[in-house]
Every structure is written in C-alpha cells, then in structure tokens.
Amino acid sequence: MPEERIQKVLAAAGVASRRQAEVLVATGRVRIDGVVAVVGQKVDPLTSIIEVNGAPVGFGTVRAYVALHKPAGVTSTTKDRHAATTVLDLIPTALVPDGTRLYPVGRLDLDSEGLLLLTNDGEWAERVLHPRFGVEREYAVAVAQPLSPDQVGRLNAGIRVEEGMARLSVPLRATTSVENRTLAGAIDPSPDPSLVWYRATLAQGWKRQLRRMFGAVDAPILRLVRVRIGIVRLGDLHSGRSRNLKAPEIKAMAGLASSSENRRLTGDASGSISGRGRAWAEGGPRAASPKRPTTVKPHKGRPQGPRTPAPKPSEAAAPGGRKSHGEPQRPGRGRPPTSRHRET
After folding, report:
1. First to last CA, the chain
2. Residue 327's beta-bridge partner residues?
3. From residue 115, how far is each of 87, 101, 135, 166 by CA, in Å?
C-alpha cells in the first residue's frame, strides 16, 4: 500500500475527520512505531504500528453509516464525563459492525434535536462537513409568534455575526401542515400547538448560527430540529431511534452521483423531493425514464436522401410498360436499404 499523510490515514480509518486528525497529531497524541508523529508525516498503515492515545488503530474495517434522531439534552460527542448520555449510547449494537467505532459527522447543540449522521469513514465525513462541498442542512425552527415581513426580510438578507455575514442558503419559509404532522409524530416531547414553525436552510456551519440569527431579529428560537442533511432526511424517524443509511444516500453524499441527480434528490427550495428522487432516496425502485427519440443508423456506403415508399408488387411496372400481377420483385440497387433503429 502506498504511503499517505498520517492525518489522511487516520481519517480513512475512521478515527476522526482530517482536520480533527491534524489536531490529534499536532498535540502529540499519535505515535508511529512508538515515535510521536508530526503533521504531514507519511506512513504505510499496513507496515507500521499506529497508535492514538496509546490504542492501536485498525485498518480495513467495515464501513458503517448511521442516521440518528438525536433528542434534546443528549451530547453529540463520543465521550463526555459531564453527560449522562452521549449519542453513541443510543446506537444499537446491531447497526455497528464488530470492532467499529462510530464518530458524529458534525454536531448538534445540546438543546437542539434532529438528524445526526455517524460513521467510521473519515473521507466520507470530510465531504459532508467541508464547506466547499456545500452540503445543505435544513432545520425546523419554532418561535412564539409569526414573524413580521420585516423580520423575514432581515433574515433572508443575512445577519452580521462575529464570524461574518450569516446567511440562509434558500429563503425562509413557513412549514406546511403535512410537515408539521410528520414532525409532531417524530419528536419527543410533542410540540406545543401554539408554536409557529418555519424551515431554514444553511450551507454554513457556524456555532449556534440560527439561534443567533433569529435572536438578532427579536424572535428567539424555542425549539430547533434538524430535518435534513444533503439528501438524507429525518422523515418519521422517532426521537432516539437510528437507522443505517441506504446505498444511494451514501453514494450521493460522497459526491459520486452526478450534480443533476443530486439536484433531483435534494428537491427544490421548498424542500420537496420529486417522485423519482424520493424513490431513490428511500431505496425504492426508480421510475422509468421517458424514451428518447429514435434515430436511424446511417447505412454505410449509400448516399442518404429523402426516401420514397417501395411500390407494391402488384403495382410494379414490368418490362415493356406492363404491370406485374403479384410476381415478386428482386431487390434492386434503387430499393432503399432496410433501416435499423436503436435508442440513443
């Protein structure tokens, strides 16, 4: 196996994302064959012993991709001495291959709830997290009363925060009755009927970004639920439950699907998914594509031009101007060749 930089090797092994792996190396927590590693050092994981915090790192493990509905009050970290429950405590052992350690792909605040992805595939996690890939995150936001047009306009225009201009990737919108019913059946405890819900979508990932944006327009968020990451949706996954991602979801999130296919899966700005995209996202059969117009394959060696139908045998002229009475005619040079059709 060719040598790779240590942070990339650790990410591929599912230890952490590449950025987090760099921090592990820079703080001296990684050793290669007993010697403290340095950032950028190259290593062959099949011939060297790599340790993180004194524990050997295994390679070639089965990849796992899990979607979890994180309840409020549960920390997104893998270890927290101050927390009674972490997200790893909620994952059934049946979803985790033997010897596999999962890590959250990003985080949700302690008081936020909803969709959280976990994996041991560091490269995949990097593609989901890195801003240059523009993976959207959609949230259901609950406030005490309807927003005024001025508040909505300010949120859509962007709010200045410490890091810069915080923006929504698509305009803020009110939720539909169907979305409200689905969400009410999934979150625990059930939402207060007096709450007013909106859908906000981000391509940025700043700390408590939505809470700060809504606070800036005097509309504090009372409940925040993440309902989508890329094409992966929370749907009716109940609070505290988890599931394995389907192969099309994993593939599309890794950027292996075409950009046009990803657009179909993600849906329009209103958050809806087309029928074909929903079938793929849910792992069901894909709808048949409309047939494309057929074309005639050119006949080699013959000039192409307008064609006239061949005369019927009974109307074909016989030598001397007489008509043939049903006598079969031999194919001649002037008869058009048989066309062969194919779909393109």
Report:
1. 41
2. none
3. 11, 19, 14, 22
Contacts of 311 (CB under 8 A, 6+ apart): 317
- The domains of the chain, with CATH numbers, are 4-56 (3.10.290.10), 63-133+242-267 (3.30.70.580), 136-229 (3.30.2350.10)
Active site residue 109: yes
Give pTM, 2 decimals. Answer: 0.63
Tell me: the pLDDT tens digits for 49-64? 888 988 877 665 678 8
What are 205-240's pLDDT values in tens digits? 889 999 999 999 999 999 999 999 999 999 999 999
What is the Cα–Cα distance from 330 to 328, expressed in whole angstroms?
A: 7
Contact (CB, 8 A) for 138 and 132: no
Q: How far apart are CA 191 and CA 175, in angstroms?
A: 14
> Catalytic residue among 80, 89, 98, 109, which?
109
* Residue 11, both tokens: 């990410």
pLDDT in tens, 121-134: 888 988 898 888 88
Cis peptide before 189 (omega within 30 of 0): yes
